[in-house]
Amino acid sequence: MTKIKVVTDSSVQLTTQEIKKYGITVVPLTITIDGKNYIDGVEISRADFVKKMNDANELPKTSQPSIGVFEKTFKELTSDGSKVIAIFLAKSLSGTIDAARQAAEIIGKSDEITLVDSELTDRAEGFQVLAAAKDAQAGKSMQEILDHVNKIKANQKLRMMVVDLKNLIKGGRLGALSGRIATMLNIRIALKMPKGQLEVAKKGRGKKFSKAFDQKVLEDIRKNKDHISQVGISYVDTPKQMHELAEKIKEINPEIDVLVKETSPIIATHAGNGAYAILYYVEK
Q1: What is the DSSP string of 200-263?
Q2: Kind of pairing between the strands at 4-9 and 230-235
Q3: Residue where one domain finishes, among candidates 128, 154, 180
Q4: What percent of the chain has a predicted confidence (pLDDT) above 90?
Q5: Residue 58, number of CB atoms within 10 A of its CB
Q6: How many domains does the chain fold into?
Q7: Do 88 and 18 fall within a single domain?
Q8: Does residue 199 sit in the same domain as residue 237?
Q9: Axis crossing angle, helix 96-106 with helix 67-78, rounded to the nearest 10
Q10: Residue 181: predicted pLDDT
Q11: Looking at the whole model, is its pTM more than 0.85?
Q12: Do 203 and 134 reside in the same domain of the chain?
């Protein structure tokens, strides 16, 4: 039986234990802060990134892995005859999947390497990666793995709160809308990503808006509590509040596995201080 190996990128939210246990290969993105480059997760941690972002003169930039890095990774993983499923962050956020596709073509391994756009990032991408890795270890076929990943993708949800719009505006992620709402005092926005496209779900003022946002997400989790096994809560710099939110989810259903962790630099740099996301999928 042909072995199937799993690849992802460093914007994913996985624990060190998960990566090791399931033999997942993580290809790092590159971060540039005031002209200095760092390899994500290798030369800079997520906590250090936030500190450096706050002290930086300019908005940090994130870059996809080079085609050369993907060529080397794919050659190594397929050298023993293995196939690869590579699951990456949404194409709308990064050109990572395109670089991977070009690398697979250059080394003549397009048939052995299956690429998947997760249509999200962070823990939602992680849910798909973990499903693929567990299925691969269980000896399932590439089609079976893909079917499972696509089922998760079809039922995944991202609910994100941005409390400080400064970075989003600087990064141009909100287009024409950003200029209008930037002039309004203490505006916060709720974001979602249907079909991999970042959209403003709602906007409002102050902490009251954030509390209503939390309640709405908790209500959805409560409604689907018997069909949700995992929730990811990812944040930029508010661990205490996020652990409190996790406790509220555990009160709804103690069986739900909730992972609370700092988000990746590609999200932090655009979402800014105070931002957080709740990610889950409904098992149908």
Answers
A1: EEEEEEHHHHHHHHHHHHHHHHHHTGGG--EEEEEESS-HHHHHHHHHHHHHH-TTSEEEEEEP
A2: unpaired
A3: 154
A4: 87
A5: 10
A6: 2
A7: yes
A8: yes
A9: 60
A10: 58
A11: yes
A12: no
Only one residue has tokens 């290969």, namely: 25
Name beta bridge partners: 260: 233
Q: Are 120 and 156 in contact (CB under 8 A)?
A: yes
Q: Give the Cβ contact number of residue 82 at 10 Å.
A: 14
Own/partner contacts of 68-72, CB < 8 Å, gap of 24 or more, are 68/103, 69/27, 70/27, 70/99, 70/100, 70/102, 70/103, 70/104, 71/103, 71/106, 71/107
Q: Which pair of tokens denotes residue 188?
A: 């916060």
CA angle (128, 129, 131) in 5-degree steps:
65
Question: For residue range 234-253, what is the model confidence (pLDDT) as tens digits?
Answer: 999 999 999 999 999 999 99
How far apart CA 228 and CA 219 sit, in angstroms, is 13
For residue 213, give the amino acid letter. Answer: F
Question: Hunting for tokens 């989003």 — which residue is that?
Answer: 168
Residue 233 sits in a domain of what CATH number?
3.30.1180.10
pLDDT at 168: 76
Which residues form the domain of 239?
Answer: 156-281
| C-alpha to C-alpha distance for 116 and 146, rounded to whole angstroms | 9
Residues of the chain with pLDDT under 70: 1, 172-185
